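explain this:

___
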Amino acid sequence: MPVLNEEAHIVASVGAMRKQRFDGQLEFLVIDGGSRDRTREILARLAHEDPRIRVLENPRRITSSGLNVGLRHARGRWVARMDAHTQYPDDYLALGVQRLAGADTRWVSGPPIAVGRGRVSRAVALALRTPLGRGGSRKWAAARDAAGQEYELDSGVFAGVWERETLLEYGGWDEQWLRNQDSEMAGRFLGRGERLICIPAMAAEYVARDSLPSLGRQYLQYGEYREKTAVRHPHTMRRSHLLAPGIVVTLAAAVGGFGLVRRAARAGVGVYLAALAGAGARATRDTDRLEEAALVPAVLAVMHVAYGVGSFRGAVRYGPPLAAIARVLGFAPAPDRRAADAGGVDAPSLREGSIAPAPIPASSPA
């Protein structure tokens, strides 16, 4: 679990880790990226109470590097990624390891479920239950369904459980990815023909952003790094990934276009606004807080525009994903996944004996 300034959630998150029912020994690795709040103080107390908790240091401060620090220090056969603001079911590890024993997959995960703690975050959770919020990804399950059937995922993956040797084989998480690091690694797995299995009973609840500016910054990065992922792994792009950039282009044409183009763009904006209003109306069926349902159109608009702008920023920074776009539009055949480059971090650097940041003693001051 990589963490940074998580004092509001860290007790509950570590508590969810400690509640795991698993027939075997467990260790809990929490990798701190230099928190400036009370996170370190709280972690030191928790590690003192439970010797299974090990607190490590992540000097690069980004999620992907923190995950690799944890992978270096992990001593067990199995590895699970967990996030600090997410609640996992008590049998998350057990279900993941049990399914990995089936030998037809090496990556098992559950869908994420957004929950709210404030007015905006509750509206975000409502928005993500709508088709406009989920896009084309099946990972955004609306609710946990313990009886639901497992299904295969594309690159839209949320955390997971693996055998440690598998992660070492693939080189861990690529530290060039500040966001979308699971999807980038999934691109490498899919590139070798691996199956990514999602089990509804492993669904985890995460706390959504509680302000529109924060949500916008999050989706700006999502769009940028999704574009970077598509450049490296063209087979990970879906048609739905083109929706948000298309909305941005339509909005720009409606304002700055000329003649027929401008009129067509404005008609498209009208259709989009009607779709947003419909999503808001649909959200009223899922809550009795009408003021939060009324926020859903604004939340969706922020998500779409920020993601779209981020996509263009990613295309400028990393190059346009022309091969991916050609494939999703049907102008190019799907590539042979098994021939794809695995990419990523050099696996030997993650193995035992490599240079790695030292653990933080449990008694360290905050």
Q: What stands out?
A: Residues 290-318 form the longest helix (29 residues).
